[in-house]
């Protein structure tokens, strides 16, 4: 299967045997007395920005000295050598092998948002197959490079290049990986028939999800039966996960190809069913086996690296599958307020496993680490980020793509560059020292233009492309804090 811009056809999938620490805190005493030299506009009595602003070099030094900064720097060093934990930006994965021995190149989407690429990515990680990575835009987000289209005229993702041979379609790719690299098997021989049965059930679930989310609801409390049909199929999936010991579909201690086939789309079902239908799939007694299954995945580095957040999903799903259709229930209204950030991107921020979008303890680094990660990431690419923000007051690109928030040819209005630069440095300082309070202010008339620049960035922070979910949430909230103060 592959990323497309319309609802994919539902085809039966089968598996064939013969298919060739210590915190660091910034205090006022370490801030040089450099005043802001442009007016920030009206501020609320409870929204206060620092009176001084540090240079990017000074902020970089502070971020690098934090425990989180040191950890990220070490991870980046290992990543450059093809080692360390999996990450969306990795270009080489060796697992202790020599680069000369690498036979595989994975071509996947640039942002980590393609569900079909996610399956293959996770499989290579789980099997520890050495591979190179080339990241390619999905059609909805920009042009594909000519050299890639020469290799793959269709332009579809994912693509695997094995010993110079081009292979497409995610399940076909996964079959060939399993046959070519039999160490760490992911389809136990004794469960071959069960695997095929479950793969057919996955296609039924995908079909029912498409009927529920991507088509207008019919009359009646269950949307003309689409919701009832989806829930009944979801019940079957939940029951299948309870038939063997352990959390996985085929039993054992590790996920199988069947688990990978399911997880990338159920992850997107979690977000889309809640956002457009008010249907909560996580943390419910009815689907306890699926919850246990997700908890097991959320302990695995291969999944943690690839997992996105609900906001990113509801933004990236329509360009790939078509528009989602919202019900008019109170549950939908409440979910959309939360996922869109209107009710959640505010300080103080509190993330937990009991949220509508649950953050498991295993993936929750705590407030300070999340703030410091967000600061580190912003600092590492600050010059490009400043210019990116200026698109908020710039001109739309001459060529538009399917994703509404994607505008790669937009022309930034660099008249706002100086103001944006200083406000981003202010945001980073607040992230580093944790001094931002409760935001109850309102943007002044004078500040609305530059606030549009910060909002342009806020609305385009994506997971996992830019940073982890906790870091993304705290950066969005801190940008809102600054927006309220100007």
TrEMBL record:
A Pfam family assignment: GST_N_2
Positions of transmembrane segments: none
Organism: Micromonas pusilla (Picoplanktonic green alga)
Protein's name according to its UniProt entry: GST N-terminal domain-containing protein
Domain of life: Eukaryota
GO cellular component, one term: cytoplasm
Coiled-coil region list: none
Lineage, uppermost ranks: Eukaryota, Viridiplantae, Chlorophyta, Mamiellophyceae, Mamiellales
Record-annotated GST N-terminal domain positions: 104-185
SUPFAM superfamilies from the UniProt entry: GST C-terminal domain-like (SSF47616), Thioredoxin-like (SSF52833)
């Amino acid at each position: 299967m592959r990323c497309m811009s319309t609802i994919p056809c539902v085809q039966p999938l089968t598996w064939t045997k013969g298919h060739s620490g210590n915190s660091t805190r910034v205090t006022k005493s370490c801030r040089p007395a450099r005043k802001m030299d442009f007016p920030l506009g009206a501020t609320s009595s409870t929204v206060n920005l620092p009176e001084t602003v540090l240079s990017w070099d000074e902020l970089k030094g502070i971020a690098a000295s934090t425990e989180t900064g040191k950890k990220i720097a070490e991870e980046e060093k290992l990543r450059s050598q093809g080692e360390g934990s999996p990450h969306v930006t990795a270009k080489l994965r060796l697992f202790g092998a020599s680069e000369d021995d690498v036979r595989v190149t994975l071509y996947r989407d640039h942002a980590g948002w393609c569900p079909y690429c996610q399956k293959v990515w996770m499989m290579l990680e789980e099997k520890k197959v050495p591979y190179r990575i080339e990241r390619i835009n999905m059609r909805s987000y920009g042009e594909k490079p000519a050299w890639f289209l020469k290799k793959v005229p269709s332009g579809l993702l994912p693509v695997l290049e094995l010993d110079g041979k081009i292979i497409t379609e995610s399940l076909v790719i996964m079959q060939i990986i399993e046959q070519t690299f039999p160490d760490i098997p992911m389809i136990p021989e004794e469960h071959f028939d069960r695997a095929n049965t479950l793969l057919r059930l996955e296609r039924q679930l995908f079909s029912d999800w498409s009927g529920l989310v991507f088509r207008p609801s019919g009359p009646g409390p269950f949307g003309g039966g689409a919701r009832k049909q989806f829930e009944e199929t979801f019940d079957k999936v939940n029951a299948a996960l309870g038939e063997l010991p352990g959390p996985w579909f085929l039993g054992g201690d590790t996920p199988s190809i069947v688990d990978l086939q399911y997880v990338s789309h159920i992850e997107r079902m979690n977000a889309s069913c809640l956002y457009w239908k008010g249907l909560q799939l996580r943390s419910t007694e009815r689907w306890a086996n699926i919850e246990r299954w997700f908890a097991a995945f959320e302990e695995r580095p291969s999944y943690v690296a690839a997992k996105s957040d609900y906001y990113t999903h509801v933004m990236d799903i329509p360009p790939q599958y078509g528009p989602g259709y919202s019900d008019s229930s109170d549950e939908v209204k409440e979910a959309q307020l939360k996922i869109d950030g209107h009710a959640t991107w505010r300080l103080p921020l509190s993330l937990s496993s009991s949220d509508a979008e649950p953050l498991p303890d295993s993936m929750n680094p705590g407030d300070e680490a999340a703030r410091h990660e967000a600061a580190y990431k912003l600092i590492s690419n600050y010059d490009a980020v400043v210019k990116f923000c200026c698109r908020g007051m710039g001109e739309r690109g001459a060529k538009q793509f399917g994703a509404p928030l994607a505008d790669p040819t937009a022309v930034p209005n660099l008249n706002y560059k100086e103001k944006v630069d200083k406000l981003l440095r202010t945001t980073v300082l607040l992230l580093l020292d944790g001094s931002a309070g409760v935001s109850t202010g309102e943007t002044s008339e004078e500040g609305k233009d530059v606030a549009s620049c910060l909002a342009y960035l806020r609305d385009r922070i994506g997971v996992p492309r830019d940073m982890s979910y906790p870091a993304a949430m705290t950066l969005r909230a801190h940008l809102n804090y600054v927006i309220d103060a100007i």
